[in-house]
Amino acid sequence: MLAIYKKEMRSYFTGVIGYVFLVLFLAIGGGIFCLSTLYAMTANASNYFIYMLIFSAVVLPLLTMKSFSDERKTKTEQLLLTAPVSITGMVLGKFLAAVTMFAGALLVNSLCFLFLIPFAQLQFASIIGSFVALLLVGVVFIAIGLFISSLTENQLTAAIGTMAVILVLLIIGVLNTFLPNDYWLRYVINCISFFSRFQTFVSGIFDLSGIIYYLTVGALFVYLTVRTYDRRRYN
């Protein structure tokens, strides 16, 4: 697994994907910070993390679109399947490399809040909780992206497919605004909605069930990716 992880990290910086992702994430993330805090003249971090959630849904597929689709297109997939590493180790190596890239970029962007310390009283508990929540949501997005990438050899198809699935999952939470408060479907949507659970963290509430939910969904998509390659290895 470690060898796959190192290979993936190296590939991000020997090609253009890693640089494009970092430039986009840091530049647009910095712009979002300026608009949601400096321009709005507030130290409230809720808007920043909500906007970053939406932005992450669009930019994270850049990290995962080539993870497996490129292996199929360049015919190096068989080398991976016959390498002295388990399918689970191979998938986890690629998964952890993408998570490392995202976590590093998110951490650098979030450090911008330190510049506000001399001018405002920051709610660090809310900022840290929102950071953890966004990181967990990103983990789920990456797991979804890896699964979609394992189904096709076209990187563009993998990216668009990942964006579509993620945006549908986010939009589900918006449906609640159109439902009566006492309607049973509203409760069901709240339970499965990425956005509703994320808003709980942004509001300053540390939701243990939300953490378990995100980790479970992420693990499910990693498992589906492993199963996809298990079937491919023996077919």
- Outline the low-pLDDT stretches: none
Intertermini distance: 23 Å
Radius of gyration over C-alpha positions, nearest whole angstrom: 19 Å
What general form does the structure show?
globular
Q: Looking at the chains present, what oligomeric state does this protein adopt? A: single chain
What is the string of helix and strand elements? HHHHHHHHHHHH
Determine the fraction of residues in helical runs and give it as a percent range.
over 70%
Decide which structural class fits the backbone.
Answer: mainly alpha
Characterize the largest beta sheet: strand count, sense, and whether it forms a barrel: none
Average pLDDT reading: 84
Strand content: under 5%
How many DSSP-defined strands? 0
Quick structural summary:
The protein is an all-alpha fold. The protein contains 12 helices and no strands. The chain is globular.
